[in-house]
Design goal:
The complex is a heterotrimer of chains A (about 110), B (about 170) and C (about 350). Chain A is built from 2 helices and 6 strands; from the N terminus they run E-H-E-E-E-E-H-E. Chain A has about 110 residues and is an alpha/beta fold. The longest helix of chain A is centred in the last third of the chain and has 11 residues. The termini of chain A are far apart. Chain B is α/β, with parallel strands linked by helices and about 170 residues long. Chain B has a single domain, classed as Rossmann fold. Helices cover about 35% and strands about 15% of the residues of chain B. Chain B is built from 7 helices and 7 strands, in the order αβαββαβαβααββα. In chain B, a hairpin with a 2-residue loop joins strand 6 and strand 7. The longest helix of chain B has 17 residues. Chain B starts with a helix and ends with a helix. Chain C has about 350 residues and is of the alpha+beta class. Classes of the chains: A alpha/beta (about 110), B alpha/beta (about 170), C alpha+beta (about 350). Chains in contact: A-B, A-C, B-C. At the A-B interface, loops of A face loops of B.
């Protein structure tokens, strides 16, 4: 796994420069609660052999709105909608309620204070 | 011969997955297939709750499928039998205590037969269904009235078990 | 421009094995837009794996993510835990894992094919395919001890050895299965009534498959050669045992059926090669280390690429476990491929996606 650090501001530029639909494959978005910050990760692989997993990551605070990459990677909306519910973070143009019921406390994967 | 003894000659099955892992569902499908062949008891898998007599439920009840489960149960005509297929439908199994799960379907609807195992074997499902046929014969309208459906909301830690969920759909039941 | 109607299908429906909700917007029976709700079976396994269970127990919990491909989940988790523990497993354990994964692929693909036949209105073929599928369940029971939920892979190796008489019976049953598979291939390829429902339905182009990051037989039917078995060999030596890529070009329900059937031939060859060349070694690598660091694993489940991310913190309990199931990648394409099809062919198209919602929702 190759990890590439990026920031919220540069994220869309970095991924647009990296992602080519005929070469790269977007796998999933993930987030890890590190306590004060949240590490948001975007996983890519490629169709070539031998394949390498590439991970873009950015450290954000829980209140930051994360830009949506669905205009670059069209199928990313599923991963974004899931993360909004499970990690209780904000993603541009994404509503809550895709995974969890509206009456349920969101962010079950966040660390309990 | 009374009506009840004819009922068990052609019980139709309704299958609903309330959040299980598909393991028990494919075993129910295997029961319908030629090797186990529960059609010899006159059973057909039907998709319509209004035509079915036996409700086979798999999986612990997830929070999003709970209303659907009670709704399907309420739509089935009486007399009806409910079979909980598998460990997680009976007690919650390995999923018990996870944040989006309840411990078994008997928190929402009355269960007549519990089938154990993770996953259940087709032989066990057939055994449970045959036991359910005996129960179907003895069922009357009074027996159908469920005590558990009227339970109050129970708060366990951070989870609220919405056992009073049936109150909202009760007009449809009668 | 006709009037538009919204037709829901699910959460409970005769053509669905699991709760899944599609809302079709139709215009003169043609589907113009689809909304999907796939999270009916969200249980919260990821959170429980990182809080309630110790890392050696988690391999049994993640098997319960999905009953159809439980061996893929347990194997992928075991591999990611072995990466965190920095251990190498014995060669015989690797081969036995591949053996069970391929046996599991046979039963999963045949289940999907029978389901497509049933949803296309061909009940007799459903019964025939299910009858032929039973041999794989019996073999899995002989190898692992259970028909579903095998719990075969554990952290460090495998839980059971393959007995010589079981290996012999696998070879005999596979020999009997090959003519049955030829018969199924003939029906799925040449039956005229089935082709009316399947040819041209739910088609997706190669460009769309790339754009929407489709995986598994869904992508291979459209001509996109994506298969983890072809891409990585660091964990399981797939090329050594005779893996071969199978692709079709049309991308419709028919092509998906043919891809699955042709993959069965590949699986049979892989199983025969594994049994003929099974190396002798220990079954499990013991270690007393605790998981530390980050690791990712990709594995080809019957439905496509399975992805695990794990992070350890030198304790018994993992810091984070992320499961990406194959159907999760296909959700975006699943809603798009309906567009332009008749509403009547929707059940067959849904079955041909082979959706596994309990994997997706976890």
């Amino acid at each position: 796994m190759k990890k590439i650090e990026t920031t919220i501001e540069n994220l869309k530029k970095d991924i647009a420069a990296f992602y080519k639909p005929e070469l790269q494959h977007f796998m999933v978005m993930n987030a890890v609660d590190l306590g004060e910050k949240i590490e948001v990760q975007w996983f890519f692989s490629n169709y070539a052999h031998p394949c390498e997993t590439i991970c873009f990551y950015a450290l954000v605070s829980p209140e930051t709105e994360i830009p949506s990459i669905r205009d670059i990677v069209e199928s990313a909306w599923v991963a974004e909608a899931e993360l909004v519910d499970l990690m209780n973070i904000k993603v541009e143009n994404t509503q809550k309620g895709f995974v969890l019921e509206p009456d349920f406390e969101s962010g079950p994967l966040r660390k309990k204070k | 011969m009374n009506l009840a003894s004819y009922r068990k000659k052609s019980p139709w099955i309704l299958h609903y997955n309330a959040g299980g892992c598909n393991g028990c569902d494919i075993e129910i499908l295997a029961c319908l297939s030629p090797k186990y062949d529960i059609e010899r008891f006159g059973m057909i898998n039907t998709g319509n709750p209004k035509q079915s007599d036996i409700l086979l439920v798999t999986g612990p009840v997830t929070k999003r499928s709970r209303e659907r489960l009670v709704e399907i149960y309420a739509q089935m005509p009486e007399p009806k039998v409910v079979i909980a297929c598998g460990a997680c439908a009976s007690t919650g199994g390995v999923f018990r205590g996870m944040y989006n799960c309840e411990g078994g379907i008997d928190q929402y609807i009355p269960v007549d037969v519990y089938v154990c195992g993770c996953g259940t074997r087709p032989e066990q499902i057939i055994d449970g269904v045959v036991q359910a046929l005996g129960i179907l014969e003895t069922k009357t309208k009074e027996l159908e009235e469920s005590v558990r459906l009227k339970k109050e909301t129970v708060k366990e830690g951070k989870q609220i078990n919405r056992r009073n969920i049936a109150d909202q759909v009760k007009p449809a039941m009668i | 421009m006709g009037r538009q109607y919204e037709i829901p299908i699910g959460a409970q429906h005769i053509s669905l094995l699991e709760p899944l909700h599609f809302k079709f917007t139709t215009e003169n029976e043609k589907i113009v837009k689809t909304d999907a709700n796939v999270y009916y079976v969200h249980r919260g396994i990821e959170q429980a794996c990182c809080s309630k269970f110790k890392f050696r127990q988690v391999s049994f919990v993640v098997g319960r993510v999905c009953g159809l491909c439980s061996i893929s989940h347990t194997t992928a988790y075991s591999q990611v835990a072995e990466k965190l523990l920095k251990i190498e497993i014995p060669l015989r354990a690797k081969y036995l894992r591949m053996l069970v994964i391929e046996l599991d692929r046979i039963h999963s693909h045949l289940l999907c094919l029978s389901h497509v036949a049933e949803n296309s209105g061909f009940e007799a073929l459903f019964m025939k395919t299910m009858q032929y599928r039973e041999f794989s369940m019996e073999l899995l029971e002989a190898v692992c001890g259970n028909r579903i939920q095998y719990d075969f892979s554990i952290v460090g190796g495998v839980a059971r050895d393959l007995k010589p008489q079981v290996a012999q019976s696998i070879m005999e049953r596979l020999k009997k299965f090959v003519p049955q598979l030829d018969e199924l291939m003939d029906i799925y390829k040449n039956n005229w009534t089935l082709s009316l429902k399947n040819k041209g339905a739910g088609a997706i182009t190669k460009e769309d498959a790339m754009r929407l990051n489709v995986v598994g037989p869904f992508a291979r039917a459209a001509g996109l050669a994506v298969d983890v078995r072809n891409e990585t060999e660091d964990l399981l030596p797939w090329k050594e045992v005779g893996f071969e890529m199978v692709t079709e070009t049309t991308g419709d329900v028919y092509a998906r059926n043919i891809v699955r059937l042709r993959e069965l031939y590949v699986s049979i060859r892989i199983i025969e090669n594994i049994i003929n060349g099974l190396p002798e070694s220990a079954l499990i690598t013991e270690t007393k280390a605790f998981p530390d660091g980050e690791a990712t694993v990709r594995l080809e489940a019957p439905r496509g690429e399975l992805f695990y991310y794990a992070k350890g913190n030198k304790t018994q309990v993992l810091e984070r476990l992320k499961i990406k199931a194959p159907t999760f990648s296909n959700v975006a394409a699943m809603t798009e491929a309906f567009t332009g099809n008749e509403y009547g062919s929707a059940p067959a198209i849904i079955a041909s996606y082979d959706p596994c919602l309990s994997c997706t929702a976890r």
